[in-house]
Amino acid sequence: MTAQRGPEPPSWLVTGAGGMLGRDLVAVLSARHPGRVTTASRAEVELTDPAAVRAAVAGHPIVVNAAAWTDVDGAEQHEEAATAVNGTGVANLAAACAEAGARLLHVSTDYVFAGDADRPYPEDAPTAPVNAYGRGKLAGELAVARLLPQTGYLVRTAWLYGAHGPNFVATMLRLATERPHLDVVDDQFGQPTWSYALAERLADLGAAAHRGAAPAGIYHGTASGRTTWYGLAREVFARTGLDPDRIRPTSSDRFPRPARRPGFSVLGHAGWSRAGLAPMPDWRAMLADALRPDGTLTSAPRPPAPGHAADDRIGSGSR
Fold first, then answer.
1. Structurally, how many domains does the chain consist of?
2. Torsion angle of alpha carbons 83, 89, 91, 92, nearest 10°?
């Protein structure tokens, strides 16, 4: 008697695979689903080309979009070009997923909010972006909600850092070798989030969506807790053996930028319960897992300590 085989596991498409989050996504998904992951960098698939997007999506039941125009100040100066990627390009991807019957996990941002709240923004809070980048990202969100009401997943993240791209944590570690003191903004609040931990959470969500356990809609993919850029910088220094008192607090008006930044980017996490998942870990614990003892950022979690289950490590999707 021939044993019956179970259903073939789904194949995944990762757009924006060459970026900081994209590279972590490919690593996580390839480890969980060997041979079932297709990567697409911007050079390989231009989101503003509908035909190219349709061809890339074909045959992939799950699509994770990590592609974006991420230059916030550049978007302020070139809003039409930024929105072509973050708005129109995402609409093209959503339309292709609708045509192919694929589920889309789209990574969005806290910048869709005004940043003037005094408590965490829930997933259904009114949006009111204060800059061009936020307006473009909101256009992408609206396209996913309109075109994929039952199979579109919006995962907003913020204050992302990781091993594979420029980010605040890496910048602090570099500047520590160049300057005796660093003045860091202490009037913007957010949730520093490790890109690898977010990649694991996206993999969890995609798997839950595929088996029908996660409803479509908005999820907030940020660490728990909150801090300021100043608080984050001090924690980075303390965890790498540097003197945190070398970090001095300052205000945003000392560092004027072309694009206005939200002052409050703390997101609520109630939505994860709909998918049977707990909120992501506290930002301090996440940072501890992301930093090596030598002060460099790792691209994967450290092995669990003896006597601890693998699922106890920070960044595990089970937490």
1. 1
2. 150
Residue 264 lies inside a defined structural domain of this protein: yes
Residues lower than pLDDT 50 in the chain: 1-3, 6, 304-319
Domain that holds residue 304: 12-312
Residue 1 domain-assigned? no
- The CATH number covering residue 219 comes to 3.40.50.720
- Taking only the tens place, the pLDDT of each residue in 188-223 is 999 999 999 999 999 999 999 999 999 999 999 999
Q: Are 161 and 192 in contact (CB under 8 A)?
A: yes
319 inside domain: no
d(CA 294, CA 142): 43
Whether 161 is catalytic is no
Catalytic residue among 121, 133, 219, 230: 133
Model confidence pLDDT, tens digit, residues 270-295: 999 999 999 999 999 999 999 987 88
Q: Is residue 200 part of a domain?
A: yes
